[in-house]
Design brief:
This protein is α+β, with helices and mostly antiparallel strands. It folds into 2 domains: about 1-40; about 45-254, no CATH class. The protein is built from 3 helices and 14 strands. Strands 1, 4, 7, 8, 11 and 12 form a 6-stranded antiparallel sheet that branches. A 6-stranded antiparallel sheet has the order 6-5-9-3-13-14, with no helix packed on it. The chain has a two-stranded antiparallel sheet with strand order 2-10. A hairpin with a 6-residue loop joins strand 13 (about 240-245) and strand 14 (about 250-254). The protein is rod-shaped. The N and C termini lie far apart (about 100 Å).
């Protein structure tokens, strides 16, 4: 087949275009594969464990139960940020401040305390004259130790903290009432006894995670050959809790 000069030129140009296009496709596929391999290699494995810590804090404020008006409050116990609150023990203590009698105390008041997690069934305890006791509440179980795939130690921390978000707090409904021990036939003593104050202390256990990073992490900027342990609790070792209390019928902060 005889081709004209113009046809030969067009044919040559077409062949060149096909060759260039094929080379471009091959290079693109190679770059995409290399990028996928690099992206897979960029992930690191980070192991983490959980450390058990304890803390306690007394509730401040006007903790007082009157003979006509019981104390009602909502207390929120919070462990540090990025931790898991495990259990809370609330200790109540009181002593009748208005009694009489030499050989035997008379006019002893009866104090009744009801404490429950918000929306839960209350635990009720009674005390005559004085006493102390505790109310125990399980909040969260211990999280399992595990490992996680992430681009960097910070990414691993972010993933863990997203999973445990909101698990470091619990609220409690508290109702305390007093029945006066004085009788009406002793009017002076009866009207003098207005009620009693009391104290509340929260003792709690919580879990803080500890992240282990090694020298195979290209994103942590560390040249140390030993494993580095990083904790989600930025104040690890300093037992400080956050507490909020609703005093009487209003909310406040302590």
């Amino acid at each position: 087949m005889n081709l004209k000069k113009n046809d030969k030129i067009i044919l040559i140009i077409g062949v060149v275009i096909l060759v260039v296009a094929g080379a471009g496709i091959a290079l693109y596929d190679s770059d995409a594969n290399d990028s996928g391999i690099a992206e897979d290699m960029d992930y690191q494995t980070y192991s983490y464990t959980w450390i058990e810590l304890t803390d306690e804090k007394p509730f401040d404020g006007d903790l007082y139960a009157g003979k006509k008006t019981p104390y009602e409050g909502v207390h929120t116990v919070s462990s540090k940020a990025n931790t898991v609150l495990a259990n809370v023990e609330i200790l109540i203590e009181w002593e009748d401040d208005n009694t009489y009698g030499l050989l035997r105390e008379k006019g002893l008041d009866l104090l009744s305390a009801e404490i429950a997690t918000s929306g839960g069934s209350p635990s009720i305890k009674d005390f005559v004259g004085n006493g102390s006791d505790s109310f125990f509440f399980s909040i969260n179980s211990r999280p399992p130790s595990d490992s996680i795939e992430a681009h960097s130690a910070q990414d691993a921390k972010d993933i863990i903290e997203d999973e445990i978000s909101g698990t470091n707090t619990a609220s409690f409904d508290v109702v305390v009432s007093v029945s006066i021990g004085e009788k009406m036939f002793r009017p002076l003593k009866f009207f003098k006894d207005k009620g009693n104050d009391f104290s509340l202390t929260a003792r709690y256990t919580y879990y803080s995670y500890e992240l282990e990073t090694g020298d195979n992490d290209p994103n942590d900027g560390s040249d140390d050959d030993e494993d580095i342990k990083d904790t989600g609790d930025s104040e690890y070792g300093h037992n400080v809790g956050n507490f909020y209390v609703n005093l009487g019928y209003g909310r406040g902060m302590i």
